[in-house]
Amino acid sequence: MGRLLIKTAIVALAFSMLIFVSIKIKNEIEASKWENNIAVAAFNDNKETYNGNFLKLGFQVKQDSIVSSIDIFLENKKAEIQNKILCVNNRYYISAEDIARNFNMQVETYNDEIHFYKIDRNFKKDDKKEIVIDCKNDTYKISRENDLRNSPLKVNNNFYIALIDIAEIFNLRAKWNYETKEIKFYEDRNTLSRESKRQRQKRPALIRFEDVAAGEVYMNSDSLQKMRIIADFMYSQRAPFHVAWIPRYKNPKEGIDNDLLKVDSMANADFVYTLDYMIKKGAIIGLHGYTHQYGEEQSIANAEFGDYASLQETEIRVKAAINTAKELNIPYEFFESPHYKSTEMQQAIFEKYFNYMFEPQKGVFNTKPVLSKRNNRTVYVPAPLGYVHDNDVDDMIKRIKDKGKDSIGAFFYHPTKEFESITLVKNNDDYPDYEYSSSSMLHKMIKCLKDEGYAPVKIHDIKLLK
Ligand SMILES: [Zn+2]
Q1: How far is the CA of 48 from the centre of ligand 1 (A)?
Q2: What are phi and psi of 267, to 5 degrees?
Q3: Do residues 159 and 248 both lie within one domain?
Q4: Which Pfam families does the protein's record reference (predicted)?
Q5: CA gap 159, 180 in Å, rounded
Q6: Which of 102, 307, 320, 326 has the fewest CB atoms inside 10 Å of its own CB, making it the most exposed?
Q7: 305: CA distance to ligand 1 center in Å?
Q8: Is the separation of the CB atoms in 394 and 377 below 8 Å?
């Protein structure tokens, strides 16, 4: 009897040991698959652009929305604008009538739809030369349906469409000139070759363009044009990217306070146009503080939270940043503290408003994504590969290659460094052409990621279980 008991005990013990070991092995396998799980989730999401539709403008246009000082050109010919150009939230809008006039088309408008036709109807019925704009769902359809970046406005029974959407519908490249107050559009002559599909890879990578604000170098049309060229490159590589945007640029000592909600200027309109452009090319925008400075200090150079802002001020600033994005109709997906400077208590405030923090969690100092234990919702995604110091891209390449298995392949890069590799070229007729060196730092990093089996993913591809 005693022997049987011992035998049973030994069998039971062996059995539970076996279960214990197999669970442990299974957990380890699962844990080692964390990168692959993120990469797989990224491929389940085929959407390329993310349109927040924060505001349906109430079709209320005030007198001060009318812009009389700028000229629009099409293939170097001054466009004939009979209705006014409108400026709402630093976006220019042109009426459907004027669009039709300048593109030699006919327009028919309905309650919620705008239809453009070629006047010369010498094409077959099934040729689908018609452009249908659905103002209810904010889409346009030529051969297939696409999202508009902004809802069309309806003013005095006239529809108005934002420049960024006109440029996409008609495949135009823009050249802005703030001095002469001209925006020149040309049909895009360099059709960008694009990878036929995303490469399925096992390891996720996150790329973040850092410190993008309507100030300093970004208040220059050449810089913004280069920014759009970088977005084109990322789009051609099917590489989604993140943009750490600072909603309000300040430099109090120089008397600069560039609040995009209050200051209307061509440079600001070009900046918003460029944000829209990047979103259309796969950018995920995040809020990088509100002003990225404190007191009399200058934006970007200085931190905003940490020891500076009280908890109350912190919340006010976060809300102001979110309000700017919503008013401007810029969808945002994450928050990043300037210089990563924030306290645990401040991060607890950010968590209230964001599902993703693109920084390590204070006190945890994670090198791979973790779920906040405070709210079981916010994911902290660090960027343990850091950033490109000076112009030492080889150092970053080495870091990508040596990445440890418990850290995520995420880094950030100041796009102004990439500007040096792009030369803007003017053709005879002013067409805004460019040369982009294929040995640029970004080209090298993207190539390295590919060679090392990484797929660029979006921060919201990272889903962690509670
Ligand atoms: Zn920064």
Answers
A1: 26
A2: -65, -40
A3: no
A4: DUF2334 (PF10096)
A5: 27
A6: 307
A7: 12
A8: no
Q: How far apart are CA 189 and CA 431, in angstroms?
A: 9
Judge if 170 and 311 occupy the same domain.
Answer: no
Distance 93 CA to ligand 1 centre (A): 32
Domain span at residue 345 reads: 193-461
- Residue 300 Cα to ligand 1 midpoint, Å, equals 5
State in Å: Cα 299 to ligand 1 middle.
Answer: 9
Quote the number of domains for the chain.
Answer: 2
**Structure tokens given for 372:** 């906040």
* Centre of ligand 1 from the C-alpha of residue 302, in Å: 8
Q: Give φ, ψ of 321 to 5 degrees.
A: -65, -45
316 C-alpha to ligand 1 centroid (Å): 19
CA of 291 to the centre of ligand 1 (A): 10
28 occurs within a structural domain: no
User: Using alpha carbons only, how large is the chain's radius of gyration in Å?
Assistant: 26
Model confidence over 428-444: pLDDT tens digits?
A: 888 999 999 999 999 99
Q: For residues 317 and 157, which has the higher predicted lDDT (pLDDT)?
A: 317
Answer whether residue 293 is part of any domain: yes
Q: What is the CATH number of the domain that holds 405?
A: 3.20.20.370
Q: Are 300 and 252 in contact (CB under 8 A)?
A: no
Ligand 1 centre to CA of 251 (Å) is 15
- Ion ligand 1 — residues with CB < 5 Å: 211, 338
Q: How confident is the model at residue 413 (pLDDT cuts 50, 70, 90)?
A: very high
Q: For residue 42, how far is its CA from the centre of ligand 1 (angstroms)?
A: 26
Among 187, 215, 246, residue at a domain's last position? 187
Q: How far is the CA of 297 from the centre of ligand 1 (A)?
A: 14
Question: Which of 116, 61, 115, 114 shows the shortest CA–CA distance to 92?
Answer: 61
Q: Indicate whether 293 and 152 sit together in one domain.
A: no
Judge if 176 and 210 occupy the same domain.
no
Final residue of a structural domain among 187, 207, 228: 187
pLDDT in tens, 67-114: 878 999 999 999 999 999 999 999 999 999 999 999 999 999 998 899
The secondary structure of residue 53, as a DSSP letter, is -
Q: How far is the CA of 89 from the centre of ligand 1 (A)?
A: 24
172 and 307 together in one domain: no
Separation of CA 309 and ligand 1 centre (Å): 16
Query: Per-residue pLDDT for 125 more than 80?
Result: no
* Residue 173: φ, ψ to 5°: -105, 140
For the entire predicted model, the pTM comes to: 0.91
CA of 364 to the centre of ligand 1 (A): 21
